[in-house]
Amino acid sequence: MEPLAKLISALSLSLIITAYLIIEIKNLRYATYVNILQALLMCSLIVIFAGQNPGLYSWALTVFITKVIIIPFLLLRTIRRTGALEVPPVIGYFGSIIFITLIVVILYRVTHRYVDFIAPTPLATQEPFRTNLAVSLALFIMGLYCILVRRDAIKTVLGLIILQNGVHLSLVSLVPLLEETGIIGIVTDVVIAVYLLLYIIQGVYQKFGSTDTFNLKGLRW
User: Fold this and answer.
1) What is the pLDDT of residues 76-90, one digit of tens each?
2) 3-class DSSP state for residue 91?
3) Fewer beta carbons below 10 Å: N end or C end of the chain?
């Protein structure tokens, strides 16, 4: 594998490590800092691919502004108002590590064994795109897992961001040379959704004194 391909694969696999830390770190402020690191990794990947498609530079800039600056600012502001400790999750540490490890291993093997069937283009069957495809699917499922099993509303938002990073990694890996790739990446940014969710979370906290999503059962018209 060429040095550049090795770098891309290393950055891609680092996204899984940061996603796991975001999910499992109990201190929401620290989890947000790791989220910033994941955003920087994602931005770096887009910049590397922009070497062949200059249109991706604008997407990389958007990722930096929204995911490294704006979203962390909104998250940290909300955490200051609601508290930095996560509401205890439905599934604990050991359950999560077993589930996530199985998901990563299974997806890695499936995408590498059946890549000719899964990949939409011949380029996507090669490295590092093949590994990126496995990582993007793993991130998507990890984000969905975080949304479903973490009771803390802030972790739900972080799970949404992880899920989106998985989608964006697949986008930049499967069609890196398409002119519209950067535009699609920009318009699918979740910054507005994150702002609205955090606004709602603050309202829930004011009413119940907690960011526990289980409290939403108490909402009535």
Assistant:
1) 999 999 988 898 888
2) coil
3) C
